[in-house]
User: Fold these one by one.
Assistant:
Number 1:
Amino acid sequence: MSVNPMAYEAQFFGFTPQTCMLRVYIAFQDYLFEMMLVVESVILKKLDGFPDCKISPFQIRKSTEKFLLFMKEHFDKLFSKMEEVLLQLVLNIPKNVLLPEDKVHEEYPYSKEQFQALQDEIHQLQQQYRAEASAGQALRAELEEQKAVRAELEKILQWFDGLDNICREHGTGNFKESFAFLTQNSKKLQDVLKDIEEKSKKIKKHDQLL
């Protein structure tokens, strides 16, 4: 069998020429074996008509096998020549023939260097895409963080609005006055807490003395 891969022919036919020849060879060989079995069975039937014949079925089988081996050797030689002719003249695509699906290579030819440059450009674009995707992800994370900060600021503004309303209810008009009001009330609360703590200590000491 031929060792040439014949890849272009396989692209056109949908199978390798060597596979085709192998199947033809197996088909011929199977047919040869079947014919030998038929010939053997015919000879055995003919011998049944000669009761005094001294040829045994075992001898017939040995002779059939020898004849089959002889036929197979000659068949292999003939098939080898037939395979060579078919692979060269029938199943072979000439070098100057271009398949329809490869016409684009003829219209837009490119060298090995151009192909490598194209591969490098693709690789560079892939790296650029990954970098942009990573930057986009970082921007989205930053945007989410800004949203969270904005939400906290809105809460603080709401708190100040509520604080301003409370201060207005107590007669203070602007933020400065409100802040001074809160500071004054905070000091008052601290004094009250201190007074409560001192009274609590005195009560504990009194209880201990009792």
Note: Helices lie at 7-13, 17-48, 57-89, 103-107, 112-169, 175-209.
Number 2:
Amino acid sequence: MLPAQLTCRLTLNALRRTHLGACLHSLSSCFIHTDGGRTRHDLHNDSTLTRRVFPKQSVICPMHRLYETQQYGRRSFSLSAATIVNSAPALVQPYLRLMRLDKPIGTWLLYLPCTWSIALAADPGCLPHLGMLTLFGTGALLMRGAGCTINDMWDKDFDQKVARTATRPIASGEISRMQALVFLGGQLSLALGVLLCLNYYSIALGAASLSLVFTYPLMKRITYWPQFVLGLTFNWGALLGWSAVKGSCDWIRKMMLR
């Protein structure tokens, strides 16, 4: 028991010295870049002042938490869409970012109207059909990715001039328009496979939504309300979910619900 505690303490002390040395090196680099005329003696004085200003507790606390993690076996684990994308192979990451897999809020906005209509179309006292929810979840992921791909292909020249969008894969040159077109074909092919699992009425209704998907980027050029078209695109799934369960849409009832 005693040797184990001694080993842990020695490891902790070594980590403290390493962390402190890295901090002082970074601060010294900042001083060098700030004023190139400083001498080595000045940098030594700055480092001494840094040791006096920053208390030891600020350096020890992270190491103490690390020691507690090692002692009690706790591990911090974070699973997010961005983490999954960053963990993917380097060749795949641009395509995942192209379909906005690291920002899943758009997929939820497309999927939730589908779930509402599927739940409303279920028989009284029954839960929504799990298979239908799974199909629409897959379709929402694919169609959201296809919509983002189309949008980035249309807006490449505009995205390069905006700081928020300049790092998108097509705008930054990570993916060419031809590669994006091939990737778009793959997404639409998989989405078609999902759509063919539904009835004929829903297949026609789902195909009609492509007009909104392809024309939304153009609305930015001819109107000040492109989000109106985007809202129609996102909520089209409410019609599709109802027709997938009921076989058709009661348009009068739908208009009254809206």
Note: The chain has 14 helices and no strands.
